[in-house]
């Protein structure tokens, strides 16, 4: 593992080889970004209940690991598809939902529309690899307050969660600077 300074972050790079389906190995590289200036942590009177929705289990595990940086944030459920996300949001009424777009059975954008009706107090952050500006605009148009590209999640996910929990909109730096409607 090694680390370096970049912008206002310290970036740690960790690499490990992993077996790949019995056919050799592949290299897993993890970037962990932490702000060099300490972010003022919000003081919550209760824990923040989070639902993670992504069809890739290893990615959900990575997101869960990142969220453990804040003891008051509690992952209450995970699911891999859009219909289950709507059902869990209706049943559990989480404070925050981290939602992918490319989901089986019901895409994340349609899931967000349904979730907003069933659990209007739940805040939504899209966590997607899709950087198409029309998709970002459509996603934010559902009432979501955040959009984080997966490639930026190591550096920006915690910042996005804090901003959205505080009522502010957050858009990944990779797509920032484009006009998005405030929702």
Summarize this structure briefly.
This protein is of the alpha/beta class.
Q: How would you portray this structure in words?
A:
It is a single chain. The protein has 183 residues and is α/β, with parallel strands linked by helices. Helices cover 30% and strands 31% of the residues. The strands form two sheets. Strands 5-4-6-7-8-9 form a six-stranded parallel β-sheet, sandwiched between helices. Strands 1-2-3 form a three-stranded antiparallel β-sheet. Strand 1 (2-6) and strand 2 form a beta hairpin. The longest helix is centred in the last third of the chain and has 13 residues, at 153-165. It is globular.
Number of helical regions: 5
Low-confidence stretches are: 36-45
Helix content: 25-40%
Q: Superfamily at the CATH H level of the largest domain?
A: Response regulator
How would a textbook summarize the main sheet? 6 strands, parallel
Looking at CATH, which topology of the largest domain would you report?
A: Rossmann fold
The count of DSSP E runs of length 2 or more, i.e. the number of strands, is: 9
* Lateral arrangement of strands in the main beta sheet: 5-4-6-7-8-9
Approximate shape: globular
């Amino acid at each position: 593992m090694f680390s370096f300074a970049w912008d206002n972050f310290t970036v740690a790079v960790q690499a490990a080889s992993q077996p790949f389906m019995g056919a050799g190995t592949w290299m897993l590289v993890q970037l962990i970004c932490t702000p060099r200036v300490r972010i003022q942590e919000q003081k919550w009177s209760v824990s923040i209940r989070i639902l993670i929705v992504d069809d890739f289990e290893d990615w959900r595990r990575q997101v869960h690991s990142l969220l453990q940086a804040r003891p008051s944030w509690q992952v209450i459920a995970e699911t891999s598809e859009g219909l289950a996300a709507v059902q869990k949001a209706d049943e559990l009424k989480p404070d925050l939902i981290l939602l992918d777009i490319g989901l089986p059975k019901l895409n994340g954008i349609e899931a967000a529309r349904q979730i907003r009706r069933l659990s209007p107090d739940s805040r939504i952050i899209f966590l997607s690899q899709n950087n198409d500006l029309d998709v970002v605009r459509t996603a934010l148009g559902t009432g979501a307050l955040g959009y984080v590209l997966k490639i930026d999640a190591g550096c920006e996910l915690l910042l996005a969660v804090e901003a959205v929990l505080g009522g502010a909109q957050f858009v990944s730096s990779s797509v920032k600077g484009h006009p998005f409607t405030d929702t």
